[in-house]
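Apologies for my clumsy wording, but can you show me some protein sequence, whichever is easiest, together with the matching structure tokens, please?
=====
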Amino acid sequence: MSETKLVATARTDFGKGAARRTRRAGLIPAVLYGHGTAPVHVSLPGHQTYLALKHSSNPLFEIDIDGTTQLALAKDVQRDPMRDEAIEHLDLLIVNRGEKVTVDVPVHVVGESAPGTIHVVESQTVTVEADATQLPEAIEVSVEGLVDGTQVTAGELVLPAGSTLVVAPEHVVVSISEPRGSAADEAADAEVAAEQSAASAAADAAAGDES
């Protein structure tokens, strides 16, 4: 995977007021930490950072601070609850080339299960360990032809080269089932059928009286 290059500016003002001023300027407050170094507070270009986070589940950033570059991964993204595209704060974890890191990778279901069945994604992501510069964008799970009652576990997934499963192999990722109504649904259907039958009987009786 390629790195997104960002030119960061060191921050010296902190607190909610300073963060609001940073965001009004089109920047994103962020903190860079890891590998035993002291946290570095920076401001990142807002639009460029947002696009990188939008188009990748685990984007790798190359952060330039006063001419010194450092690779980093987004570990915690705080978004505006009213506007998903507005990022309020970003935590960045320092990584090195060749270093193994643990990340959550989205599950992407492909194929069609057996006729009359549906698939349920029990786990939207799968945790894996991989090279910081070779992180998978998604893990495909094929449900082609799978029948009712089938469960696809993490141990059955075909992981991208260089990735190692971190979660338990028996962890259920996708399950296949036939849609079934609840007892309440069945009772409601029976009540509707009874009402329709009674109405039909009443109509027939009325028609007989008229004749």
Q: What stands out?
A: The mean pLDDT is 86. The helical segments are 16-24, 46-55, 183-210. The two ends are 82 Å apart (CA to CA).
